[in-house]
Amino acid sequence: MWVLWFQKPVVSDHMRLTVLGTGTIAFSPTRSCAAYYLEAGDARVLIDCGPGSARRLAELGIPWQTITHVVISHFHIDHHSDLPALVFAGKYGMLPARTAPLDIVGPLGTRALLERLAAAHGEWLMTPGYPVRITELAPGTSMDLGGARLDCTKVPHTPESMAYSVSHGGRRLVYSGDTGFDAAFAQWAAGCDLLVLECSLPQTMAIVEHLTPEQCGEIACLAAPRTLVLTHLDPPVELVDIKALVAARYEGPLVIAHDGWSTELGD
Ligand SMILES: [Zn+2]
Ligand SMILES: [Zn+2]
């Protein structure tokens, strides 16, 4: 008698964000530079990888060996300096050495950045013994991350700066990267489940390239996310009452992230 085994395809709506670094280049004992680990279906995505992110991955017990994509928001060093270390770790930091491809995704100019880094560190950065695939995204385009969808839009910070969104299983996460105030970005983020927004400086130190708590509240008011998460906190911004300043403009749930903060978006 034949016994038939029907294997149900596993479709995972799983989406979990773990914040690795909530600080800036103003070094902090508690806040590492920008880095976010996102599990979305089969994708294991590191969004930004500033200094300290490799350390945080290890501390939090995240299987960094299985990261599938590294997505870079812009070319400031507090958002990408641990990328060469991550590539090198795939070659010499694990046994057996990595064979799976690593996708590096970023704005136009990412390939040139990698070539400059390879000129400094060595050719192994582009050819570490496993495929390194570089994808440059123009603002407004999208990419498949093995089942999850990555979208991007331009934000006012540096000429190449982009914000990203990852959609999977009916949920959407938006990450601003570094940005100044931009109503168009707020519109683009509208209705997302999780809005991860930079909140760099207090009003007294405001500059057009970064956000204040007041501006975070205004963007959240326009975007109306299910939950607002603030990150990229420069030490002086922590001296003001961030929660009150945001709450005066936006009534929804607010999290001031700390390194290691994690949340599930899917089911
Ligand atoms: Zn930054
Ligand atoms: Zn920046």
Indicate the proportion of strand residues. 25-35%
Radius of gyration (CA) equals 19 Å
Strand order across the biggest sheet?
6-5-4-3-2-1-14
Q: Mind describing the biggest β-sheet?
A: 7 strands, mixed
Shape: globular
Note down, in words, how this protein is organized.
With 267 residues, this protein is of the alpha/beta class. It has helices at 53-59, 83-92, 110-121, 183-189, 213-223, 242-247; strands spanning 15-21, 35-40, 43-49, 69-71, 102-107, 132-137, 142-145, 148-154, 162-168, 171-175, 194-198, 227-231, 254-256, 262-264. Strands 6-5-4-3-2-1-14 form a 7-stranded mixed sheet. It has a 7-stranded mixed sheet with strand order 7-8-9-10-11-12-13. The N and C termini lie far apart (39 Å). One zinc ion binds next to loops.
Q: Can you summarize this structure?
A:
This protein is of the alpha/beta class and 267 residues long. The protein has helices at residues 53-59, 83-92, 110-121, 183-189, 213-223, 242-247, and strands spanning 15-21, 35-40, 43-49, 69-71, 102-107, 132-137, 142-145, 148-154, 162-168, 171-175, 194-198, 227-231, 254-256, 262-264.
